[in-house]
Write the structure tokens for this entry.
Amino acid sequence: MKIRYRLTLLFSIIVASIVLIFSFITYVLYADYRNDEFYKRLKDKAQTTARLLADVKEVDKDLLRIIDQNTINELYKEKVIIYDKNNDLIYSSIDDEVISINAKLFDKVRTKKYIEYIEKENEVIGMHYLENGADYIVFVSAFDKYGKKKLENLMYFLTVSSLISVLITIGAGAFFSKRAIDPIIEINNQVSTITIDNISSRVKTEGSKDEIDQLAKNFNQMLDRIESSFKIQKSFINNASHELRTPLAVINSQLDVALSQKREKEEYVTILKSLQEDARKMTNLVNTMLVLAKSEEQQSSILKDVIRVDELILSVQDELLSLYPHYTVDFSYISMPDNDSDMTIEGNELLLRSAFMNLIENACKFSRNHQAKVRINSDDTLLTILIYDNGIGIPEEDISRIFDPFYRADNGRQVKGFGIGLSITKRAVDLHKGRIIVKSQLNAGSTFTLIFKHL
Ligand code: ADP
């Protein structure tokens, strides 16, 4: 069932139940009041008539006439009957109404003193009157024509007004739920038209700051993120294929040249070494791209290793120096850690290894002396690693962009590279909820500072 209809139904059921409950309570209370009030009138009548009879010693025709004149027409279909203590009739009002009396009834009135009951449509009271030396049993019956008519009218009024209010509620419910749901339907329609081909389209927002407007805004923000990651992926694939094509073209032309004629053994060795270098670079590129793709997919599950950062850096240093023996890495502690946990963080070893490898390798390859300096320090909560060099530095205008995939500053283009290492480093640091800060001065050197929370 559509939300709109569900809301209308729910709203109508709630209001209808409230109206019905209140109508029922009103009816019952009024009926009860009418009942009480009418019996009270019958009781008054019984008392007045009995008192009148008790005030005189002898019952004669004149007295009966006076009593009837005093009492007639006060109540509709009224009948008053009075018996003395021997259950002999001493007074019966002059009208056609009848009250069926039997011996049981006399006993009941005598024991209970006062009874109420209904005979046919009339209400009846029976009373034992014991005043001024009189001992009477009085029965009064009457039909509450006006009270019952009023009750009937009330019933009619309550039924009609309940019905009208339920109808109004259904109408109002349908109207307001349509108004409430319409903006959602509108958003739904707009969303359904957004596909990968028009991913830059956005849902219209009203600026009303209500929940639906907030939903539209959030949806647009989500589209912003999807669009930007979609664009990054697209440019990543473009750049990656371009970067792979270049070394492949170089490898092909080197192979063509090598095979074009017979050569000396040394020449083949030189060509093979150059091919090996290109192949290794391509392998590195593909490996790092895989690490990056993996880190995008499985953010939470990959950060489970317990890593001694100083030991990891020393292992990176060993690996780097075995690949490039002419590089030097100067590693030292700013202050010796008090305990193991000061140097330990939880995360992914592969990602952190690739981050440190990129930074230390960059420091070596972008400096003339091919030297990187690494310093490590920890305080109560944070572990700080500085990687710096006295190399070519980074132009100020490029500093903000060096973490973009495949971005390379102009002053470093003669140095081999793909421009992807720092984007992986940044991603790795972000995944570890760390921070990376770059300070650099052209032709003086660069410092990369990494800050993590240790255990
Ligand atoms: P690559 O080193 O393969 O070019 P990176 O993503 O590691 O790719 O670095 C991106 C760019 O940042 C480099 O091309 C270079 O211009 C600049 N850069 C990074 N580290 C340094 C550094 N230590 N000194 C000077 N420039 C650097």
The first strand starts at residue 79 and ends at 83. Residues 358, 362-363, 366, 389, 391-394, 402, 408-409, 412, 417-423, 446 surround adenosine-5'-diphosphate (CB under 6 Å). The mean pLDDT is 87. Residues 3-55 form the longest helix (53 residues).
